[in-house]
């Protein structure tokens, strides 16, 4: 294992942590609804757990409404049941043709709760990034112990790993700040 491959692995892992953070953010409700809210809801479609967007069209019709139009009308009760058990904060309205989800405007408390959730997701990402740093540093120590690199190279490598870590953590902080700003904007 070379120092370059250690840096490369660290950067790739940091990128994956940041992508995971962005995915986590999609589960937080903001002022404008998004179809991502129902992405994790699955229904029993002929014995297979299937995502809603695989059995019908899922559209945002305005800032507070999502409409689900199943391709097979007999799936309406199944979809309705799945949405209720997913506990996303709204009750489905079934008119026999489509299911509409009306999201009430967010309260200040809900916005603050979302911001708190965003911070928690940010902390989780930072922990992951620090663990990645620890792994990289352990690999560098092993290279030094096996006399594959000098003490000076080891010191420079640890500095490089720290620089990569600082950069990734700054990116997490910026993502959390912008998500909080988005959530608190009315």
Quick description:
This protein is an alpha+beta fold and 186 residues long. The protein has helices spanning 3-26, 76-86, 108-145, 151-184, and strands at 42-45, 48-51, 56-62, 65-70, 92-94, 99-102. Strands 3-4-6-5 form a four-stranded antiparallel β-sheet, covered by helices on one side. A two-stranded antiparallel ribbon has the order 1-2.
Descriptive account of the structure:
This protein has 186 residues and is of the alpha+beta class. The chain has 2 domains: 103 residues, Topoisomerase I, Chain A, domain 4; 68 residues, Gyrase A, domain 2. 58% of the residues lie in helices and 15% in strands. It contains 4 helices and 6 strands. The strands form 2 sheets. A 4-stranded antiparallel β-sheet has the order 3-4-6-5, covered by helices on one side. A two-stranded antiparallel sheet has the order 1-2. A hairpin with a 2-residue loop joins strand 3 and strand 4. Helix 1 runs parallel beside helix 4. The longest helix has 38 residues.
